[in-house]
Amino acid sequence: MTATILNLPSLYDPFSTEAKWQKFWEDNQVYKADPNHNGEPYCIVIPPPNVTGSLHMGHAFESALIDTLVRYHRMQGRNTLWLPGTDHASIAVHTMLEKQLKTEGKTRYELGRDQFLERAWQWKAESEGTIVNQLRRLGVSADWSRERFTLDEGLSKAVVEAFTRLYEEGLIYRGEYLVNWCPASQSAVSDVEVENQEVNGNLWHFRYPLTDGSGFVEVATTRPETMLGDTAVAVNPDDDRYKHLIGKTVTLPILQREIPIIGDEFVDPTFGTGCVKVTPAHDPNDFDMGKRHNLPLINIMNKDGTLNANAGEFQGQDRFVARKNVVSRLEADGVLVKIEDYKHTVPYSDRGKVPIEPLLSTQWFVKIRPLADKTLEFLDQQNSPEFVPQRWTKVYRDWLVKLKDWCISRQLWWGHQIPAWYAVSETDGQITDNTPFVVAKSEAEAWDKAKAQFGENVKLEQDPDVLDTWFSSGLWPFSTLGWPEQTQDLTTYYPTTTLVTGFDIIFFWVARMTMMGGHFTGKMPFQTVYIHGLVLDEKGQKMSKTKGNGIDPLLLIDKYGTDALRYTLVKEVAGAGQDIRLEYDRKKDESPSVEASRNFANKLWNAARFVMMNLATGHGSTESPFPASSQSLELSDRWILSRYNQTIKQTSNYIDNYGLGEAAKGLYEFIWGDFCDQYIELVKSRLQPDADPVSRRVAQQTLAYVLEGILKLLHPFMPHITEEIWQSLTQQSADSPQTLALQPYPKVDANLIDLALEEQFELLIDTIRTIRNLRAEADVKPGVKVTANLQTESQKERQILTAGQVYIKDLAKVETLTITDKQKSQTVAGKKPQKGLKIIGLTILAIILARLGFAVGNAIYETPIVGAFFEMVGFLYAAWFVSQNLLTAEARQKLWRQFFQGTESQQAQQPENAIAGVIGTIQVVIPLSGVVDIEVVHAKLEKSLTKVEAEIQSLSARLNNPNFVDKARPDVVQGARDALAEAEKQAEILRERLRSLGL
Q1: Residues forming the annotated binding site for ATP?
Q2: What is the pLDDT of residues 315-353, one digit of tens each?
């Protein structure tokens, strides 16, 4: 690779750049998968977004994670396929179309099925591109030539095949069962389409009189209208209050129906009165209880939520109107005891936005136990699929164990129509619960079967219902690859490698895919399930339409660019499966965290421009995999190459183990810190025209080599800016098919990793940083060079500092640098004449004080008892002194220094008019005389100290106020304590700075 000219603009424009490369990648079919590719297959199928949808932050987060994995493995040389597609979203589309018809004063029944479906397909053709085009704006590297739709011809064929096979195997049946019913859409809904909402309701208490007239039992319920369908009252058989009543009967109020009192362990004696009404046709728990006790099932509800003839005088009333009227009647009859306020959870239809009604209905079901048990075998015997994080394995397993038969029919028209045909000629032209039927793969096959069974005059009508969307979604990993045909794609890419999805649909989608995959293919549909968390808003709350706290990803893309948003979402992940919180200012529609990623992109852009400007003038190249011979590499070159290879190793290890957030953060630290802030600064002097030619060429080669590696490492996270820079750095032609996306990912060269060197260089960098900070504190002007004295007792540290002194002098603007043994310099300092005079004076004073002490001591010693006491104290002190100061060589050396070289605090004292700092065991001293105006610096420090002391006084006053400490929130009080500690620390530093100035 050789770069000879610079063609990067001075400012990075993400918007034109991103659009350009998205078009380039698609036009050149960069991401088109080839099953004949030699690499190991790596396949991810997209969790299909609803065709009705538009891009939300969850889509952006999930897509960024998937694309990072796919791009990384593609660059690793694997045969990669990211298969995109959308889901037909039967309930969402159906509801939307019915709302449109309602505005026109029509119903779907008036329009007819054919015209309704025509409208649905027309709407799909107009709107399906919205979510797909928005996903494309994220720069996802999907193979759009393989895009699928759950209602396309191939997938529809797979659905029919799956249904007929399961039916023929006895795993699909038609029967009466309690289902979640949405009165608004008048359809059964799955558990995933039910949203539990906490509401402020009531608990009604009323009496059921014992039929024998001996008393009554009191029950409590949150749905009093359902008492019209009661067929029993239940108590716990171990409840001493009621066990004597088991076997008796009560008379149902209003309807005067005689019903039994049963004993069932399901009853919670602590709920309400300990007696519960049993309505098997309108409550799932009651339904199970009814089956255990052979209770009749009485349905009182029509499909539109009104009451039917079984409700007696309340027939035709809406369920909530009937609730009020039933309560009024019970009160009038004198059986209403009381009404309590009661907060409880009510299941709502996610689409219809109304409370669902458990309704007894004839539906199609999948017999789930055989499918779930086979899937459990894969999990328990092969740990397949493997969950990341592993904690979700138990959740998944528990769900499989508890699964009940799956209701797969929906009373809708948009979707896969159930491939069953009813012989309506056998039931007076109507489809009833008892109408015989045939299941077939086509209408022609259905006629053949029906004629053979019912004769030539049979009349057929296809089941009007459609299949649950999750039925077709359960086939997604293999139906999208061509199943039931044994296609080359299916052979190559199935089982898929990784499924990336949210934890909220493990139960509804992941489990269905594993059950379907295990049954139809004999394999789990994916090797690994990577469960990601949620994107929370700026307050740490889940985003939802109800709360109105969503953040539009397209708005942030338009403001900061796609790469900035993608990188932020991935970088914020603290660990696999963790939620992330996105900073956001709603007043300004700005995100500080995304802005920081945009700044990171700009930093990389400017660093690349610097490198290429210097390559253009010096014809730098990276034609060999190793930038230069080890003999010509200088200290900083060896350091950056070691850090670069460490970063390759770290990044690959993180991504391989799904630590995408950690990988992103590590790249940020290396690129911004090590490469941009350190290495580029270190080599600037070597790039000057008058620099040594060999050193300059090595610096150019190393810069280009590491920069290209950085672009490859960062590409999976920020594909657009890295592609743009790489194209310029490698001088690819504008229409060249070469692309960074298909370049090999960097490999670790272990020979270039030198951990000892990195540790040593870190010391140099910290030293440079400390000198720079001291210069800033003393207001030394940037162009002024200073004198610096580095003192350390460690010979190793002195060697490191000496080896890197050229970097210290260059980057910290040091003209005179001395590196000395701290101990020797202090000894020499102790021999100064003025210190000698001080020592003599102090010695004379000590002799005088000692004489006085002896006189006083003799007087005390002659006093009875007191003398003995002081003698004992003296003995104990002598013993302590010897143990602390004379037993070890280190203690004796320390004592020697204290007596003859001054105390450690005196050793730390610096010359007046100097500023000092410490890095570990290294002391940095910068004399300020002649460099800055000492009095101005002194005044500035005093002003800062006055401000900090005022803050200390204010915080202390707050913390000494009992009202504040006792009444304020604990986090506020702790914040004040932390602020006080920080202020006191700042004050001590400022006082030390003032003392060092000597004024």
Answers
A1: 545
A2: 999 999 999 999 999 999 999 999 999 888 888 887 678
